[in-house]
Amino acid sequence: DSAEASPSVVFENIERCSPNCLQMLLEDISGLTVDVGFTVELIPEINVAVATFMKSIDIKEFIEKCSQHKRFREFEMTARLLESTQTIKAKNLPDSISTEYLTVYFESTQNGGGPVADVQLFPEENSAIITFCDHKGNT
User: Fold this and answer.
1) pLDDT digits 0-9 by tens, 19-61
2) I need a surface site. Which of 56, 65, 106, 121 has the fewest CB within 10 A?
3) Domain encompassing residue 99
4) Are 88 and 130 in contact (CB under 8 A)?
5) What is the CATH number of the domain that holds 74?
């Protein structure tokens, strides 16, 4: 997969940079504005953020600019391409959910899905692991 195929970048070690500061840094480095050029999703449980670009940019060049940016280095953050995956975790599922329902839901093209290879339910934590036949059905 080429870098141009993925419009998302993962930022690790974000705990020292506030969400607003991160957005301003990304605007400065990319030349785009948040909500128009890209969105940022924070995942505090694993100390990362994911920026998804809606405007076309050279992702490899952007990641290189991040690694060279003074403030980015001061915060000791890293940036890397978000790799494709065939497996996702669905959380906060209702108690009554079935593997059949999840299979049909995640195979639905209206939901951005694709062919599902496997669904593992974890009722004790109201979650499931969904494995797709290929990485295109995980949006």
Assistant:
1) 999 999 999 999 999 999 999 999 887 899 999 998 889 999 9
2) 56
3) 87-132
4) yes
5) 3.30.70
